[in-house]
């Protein structure tokens, strides 16, 4: 049975136990620290160990603060890792990547040991079954080895564990704080990204580019480097900007005029990031959010009108931008963006055909093996540890490849249930946070399990957990439904 809170005695015992763990870690650091601090890898490891212990204590004892701190950490983790390059060097297998996985895994472990893992709804049972399938597929030999499967767990298992964070703690007040926090993160990221476009990269950012350029070809377009702000990748930077835009649009539709002040900055930053797919997802999600604001009987025509208007408007904007000349620092990025959006079927100007080919190839591969190729087979872990890569860059197909038919039968109903519950949540509460939540889920469809985007994927599964948060409690906190 799902428990909403523990007794004061249990909470005090948990704090005491965690305090003893921290004390033990501190003693170990003092005793073994001087010897371990001789190499960059162990230096980063000790730092990661300290941060992981603090993050775990915070999430278990102060969950509201813990959720915010962990999401912010995931957002700035890329920048933090780069800042440390001149201090303690660089490590491709960076222990700092494990800080949040440790915290959310121990959060789930406490639920499991207390027999408090929720099973009361079909959604709960499907998510737990998905986790069991993922853990089992970590052992699949077809992916290329156990190291590929274990690393794949970081990309798939850890994001899904955020479901239980949202499921347990995701009331409307925490939703409001999380969305406000991520809007601020997106706005600051847009300023940082624009600075990278117009003024170039800092010394530590350039050092990281020099170290990773050979393995990160997608970062460069038309002779220019995409901005990435303080994220681990340009793709995650783009997705968080998209999150921010959709959230601000939802707030604007709910009556917040201040949202319009930040939207142009994020829109320009997203356009200059030069990822066409994220722009299209953002336009579609904003159209669906506007359609959702109408009465249930008018949704269908509103969706058609909104999507058509959004894409016509985008086409007109792209046409006007193509006629303009820009500074050489931005020209290459703008040309890459506009040419792809204006000519989606041209293989020389758009990667749409390439993505379709990847999805088709992965789908055919998946259909040949109903039991799946292993959890890590569709992640970066396969390429990094010498496994067999079958990524389609689309989570439904990736799940079919990794987990087989049973995985797809489990994951697809989760998508359907979540979207349906998100719409009902908005209709029942009328809260702006519910509209933001639905918008973020619309925007990220197809990328719910893109674990390489650490902050984005954690936010998505936190939102999925919020959708499943006990409805009777949510309604009591939100107040009466809006007409």
Topology:
Layout: H1 8-36, H2 40-61, H3 63-83, H4 85-88, H5 99-113, H6 122-137, H7 146-169, H8 172-199, H9 203-212, E1 220-221, E2 224-225, H10 234-253, H11 259-273, H12 276-292, H13 299-322, H14 328-342, H15 352-367, H16 380-384, H17 395-429, H18 432-443, H19 454-467, H20 471-478
Antiparallel strand pairs: 1-2
Helix pairs in contact: 1-2, 2-3, 2-5, 3-8, 3-19, 5-7, 6-7, 6-17, 7-19, 8-10, 8-11, 8-18, 10-11, 10-12, 10-18, 12-13, 12-18, 13-14, 15-17, 17-18
Number of strands: 2
Distance between the termini: 34 Å
Main structural class: mainly alpha
Beta content = under 5%
What is the overall shape? globular
Number of domains: 2
Element order, helices and strands?
Answer: HHHHHHHHHEEHHHHHHHHHHH
Number of H- or I-type helical stretches: 20
Helix content: over 70%
Rg over CA atoms, rounded to whole Å, is 22 Å
| Poorly predicted residue ranges | 1-9, 478-483
Reading side by side through the largest sheet, how are the strands ordered? Answer: 1-2
Mean pLDDT: 82
Please give the largest β-sheet: 2 strands, antiparallel
